[in-house]
Specification:
The chain has 13 helices and no strands. The protein is an all-alpha fold. Helix 6 packs antiparallel against helix 7 and helix 8 runs parallel beside helix 10. The longest helix has 18 residues.
Length: 223
C-alpha cells in the first residue's frame, strides 16, 4: 500500500505546475495546497491507479483514504474520493463511518458534494433503514458540511426520494444563514422539481424558505 501511494505521489509531483497551483489555491479560498494539475490531466494520471487490477483490497480502503486525506495537497483528497467510488458495488454497513470521516475533515464543497451525492447517496439506497438515524445525527452535529450532506444525498434519487425525510431535513434547517445550506435546500428542490414539479411548488408555497433557496427551487418550474 505504501508503494501505491508513493507511486501516485511521484506521478503528481512530476506533473506539478506552480502557476496553476497558485490559481487553484486562490479559487479554493486559500484553504488547500495543490500540485497545480488541472482536472483532465489529474484524471489521466490517476487512471492506472483506479483500474480494477490495481485496486487495493477493499478492507484497506479506510486506512488508505485516511492517509490520503491527511496529505496537504488537495489532489490526494480528490483522488481518494474517486478511489472510494470504485468500491461502490461492494458497500458494507460500516462504510458510512468512512464517508462521515471524509465529510468531517478538510471539508469544502469540492469533496463534500461528491461524497454526499455519489457515496452517501449510494449507501442510503442500499441501507435505507439507516437514513433517519444519520440524518438526525448530522442535523444535531452543527457541522455545516454534514448538514449539507443530509440534503444532498438524495439529489439523484428522483422517484426514490423520501419526501417525508426531505421535509423533516429542510424544516430542521430553516432559518440558517449559511449560504451552503440555503443553496443546497434550493438545489435538492430544483432537482426534484424535474420529477415532481407540483410537489415542489406546493412545498415552496407553504414553507418559509430563504430567498436563495426559493429562487433555486423554482428555477426550472414555469409559472
Amino acid at each position: 500500500m505504501d508503494g501505491y501511494i508513493r507511486t501516485l505521489e511521484d506521478e503528481f509531483r512530476l506533473n506539478a505546475n506552480a502557476i496553476v497551483a497558485k490559481g487553484q489555491k486562490a479559487y479554493m479560498k486559500e484553504n488547500f495546497e495543490f500540485f497545480g494539475i488541472k482536472t483532465p490531466l489529474r484524471r489521466k494520471l490517476q487512471q492506472p491507479f483506479l483500474m480494477k487490477a490495481n485496486l487495493p483490497p477493499k478492507e484497506k480502503l479506510p486506512e488508505l483514504v485516511e492517509i490520503l486525506w491527511n496529505k496537504p495537497e488537495r489532489d490526494f483528497q480528490l483522488f481518494a474520493q474517486e478511489l472510494a467510488y470504485k468500491y461502490i458495488k461492494n458497500l458494507e454497513p460500516q462504510d458510512i463511518d468512512l464517508f462521515e470521516y471524509m465529510v468531517r475533515n478538510k471539508s469544502w464543497w469540492d469533496t463534500v458534494d461528491f461524497i454526499a451525492v455519489k457515496l452517501m447517496g449510494a449507501y442510503f439506497l442500499q441501507y435505507p433503514e439507516a437514513r433517519k438515524k444519520y440524518v438526525d445525527k448530522w442535523l444535531a452535529s452543527d457541522h455545516l458540511w454534514l448538514q449539507r450532506s443530509t440534503l444532498l444525498f438524495q439529489l439523484n434519487y428522483k422517484k426514490n426520494l423520501d419526501t417525508n425525510l426531505l421535509v423533516h431535513t429542510i424544516n430542521s434547517l430553516l432559518g440558517s444563514k449559511e449560504f451552503f445550506i440555503n443553496k443546497a435546500i434550493g438545489w435538492i428542490l430544483r432537482q426534484y422539481s424535474k420529477t415532481a414539479p407540483d410537489w415542489v411548488m406546493d412545498f415552496v408555497k407553504r414553507t418559509s424558505l430563504a430567498n436563495l433557496s426559493k429562487k433555486e427551487a423554482l428555477r426550472l418550474i414555469k409559472n
